[in-house]
Each structure stands twice: as structure tokens, then as C-alpha cells.
């Protein structure tokens, strides 16, 4: 099994360098366990949608699944698979040229199923094309690095006016009593967020959440495909209950989502 493949072959250095030099592409990240993925169809939908948005090209869903299957460990151990779509031949001078996107597939060991709580700080920052999961990660990594150097674990992104939108590489949710609140704003439509919203049977809503109103919520959490649901211990100086009983209920609801075979 190759750790890095491009269109099913071991990554050629020249084709791989093209992504680093231009950094124009999109991706999705999946947690694969025993050959199954929660929300696989949604991940494939995202890849198709973003491929049209960035390259005006159609993506072969069957080819994506084939490439994922090819890199999975034989023993079914959990891994994180990232599928990146980019065109190795696209150049800086003429990015409008007709695109022929390639599939870059990488794997890494999956993190713990229940990682500990996060302490995050807010930063006013909006990703370019926030609705697309693209490879332009400089701003996110820079702000995460600065937060970690200051003693935090990560960052929660807001608009300039304090509207809370999303985490650096995760969606965020808040608990208002027994109600699940997802913030409105320009953010990435998360697969794990969508699965959780569909699986949870309690009251929930989507509404604006402002930084200066966070003290009105009892608990908060981050969600993404790699780690599932992870409580937030604090945002800036606002502490949250990491043992709130609804967090366990939400985690159980997500765990109950059936995995789709790759």
C-alpha cells in the first residue's frame, strides 16, 4: 500500500510538486473503519460539487471509491483518508486552461475516537470561498499556530462584527438548554455536522451566534470527520461544561449513524 498515490500510482515527485507550487485544488477527509465511512455519499457529493466550482469539470465517483479502497489497510484498522482533487498540469500563468483533475489520495493513522476537550480563541477571519473545502490552508494554519503559541489549542473563526461561523477545520455547535444550536454564517457545510443534525432527535435550530453572547450557552463542541464530536472547554474567557449530558447523547447519536461501505 502506498501512502501517497496519484490516480492509482505512487506519487510522481513532479506531479506532486505542482500542488505545492500552485496550491489550487479541493479535498475531503474521511475516517474509514473496517472499510466503511459515515456519510460517504455526502463526501462524494462535496467532491463533485467543488470540482465543478473550481475546475468546471465532472468527477467520477466510482473512480474515487476505487482509489480509496486501494489504500485501505488489509486488517481494517481505522485510518484517515484524504482525497485531494487538483490538476498537475495547471499553471500559474493560465489557470483558466481546460482542466483535467487528478486524484491525490493520502492516508494517516486515525486519531483517538474520543479526543479531549479543546480550549480555543476567536479570530476575525473568513476563508476564501468558505463554502468550498479547498487547499488554501495558509490562513487557517497561521491562526492555529498563533493560538497554540499563546496557549490555546485552536481557533474559532468569526466575522469582523463578531458573528461566530466555524472552527479552523471543524464546524461548531452550542447547547442552549436542551436545544442544539448551529451558527448561521459563511462556512463550510460539514459532512459530520449534517450527519449529527440528521441523527439527533432533540430540538435544534440554526441561528446567528455572536461572540459576546457565548456566555448564554451551557456547552459547545467541535465536529469533523476525523475526531467526531469534541467538547470545547472554553472559548476565549468563556468556560463550558465538558460533561454536559447532552454531549454524550449527541455523541451516541453520531455513533449510531451507519457507515457506508467504500
UniProtKB/TrEMBL annotation:
<comment type="similarity">
    <text>Belongs to the class-IV pyridoxal-phosphate-dependent aminotransferase family.</text>
</comment>
<keyword id="KW-0808">Transferase</keyword>
<dbReference type="GO" id="GO:0005829">
    <property type="term" value="C:cytosol"/>
</dbReference>
<dbReference type="InterPro" id="IPR050571">
    <property type="entry name" value="Class-IV_PLP-Dep_Aminotrnsfr"/>
</dbReference>
<dbReference type="GO" id="GO:0008483">
    <property type="term" value="F:transaminase activity"/>
</dbReference>
<protein>
    <submittedName>
        <fullName>Aminotransferase class IV</fullName>
    </submittedName>
</protein>
<dbReference type="InterPro" id="IPR036038">
    <property type="entry name" value="Aminotransferase-like"/>
</dbReference>
<dbReference type="InterPro" id="IPR001544">
    <property type="entry name" value="Aminotrans_IV"/>
</dbReference>
<keyword id="KW-0032">Aminotransferase</keyword>
<dbReference type="Pfam" id="PF01063">
    <property type="entry name" value="Aminotran_4"/>
</dbReference>
<dbReference type="InterPro" id="IPR043132">
    <property type="entry name" value="BCAT-like_C"/>
</dbReference>
<dbReference type="InterPro" id="IPR043131">
    <property type="entry name" value="BCAT-like_N"/>
</dbReference>
<dbReference type="GO" id="GO:0008696">
    <property type="term" value="F:4-amino-4-deoxychorismate lyase activity"/>
</dbReference>
<dbReference type="GO" id="GO:0008153">
    <property type="term" value="P:4-aminobenzoate biosynthetic process"/>
</dbReference>
